[in-house]
């Protein structure tokens, strides 16, 4: 899937001023959703290739990573 990229400041112009926004793209096979994390969570995930360290599944979010190999 080729992602359509846009700079954040350009994207802001397309959003309503109030409310929640989900940054995502999809095709017939998959949905890709952008979710930001604190720097230490992102650095751990890049280094170790999995979520861990300061990351917690108990954290208040509705997007949860899954292991598709299970």
TrEMBL record:
PANTHER family: DUF4291 DOMAIN-CONTAINING PROTEIN (PTHR38567:SF1). This is Uncharacterized protein. It comes from the Bacteria. Pfam families: DUF4291. InterPro entries: DUF4291 (IPR025633). It comes from Chryseobacterium aquaticum.
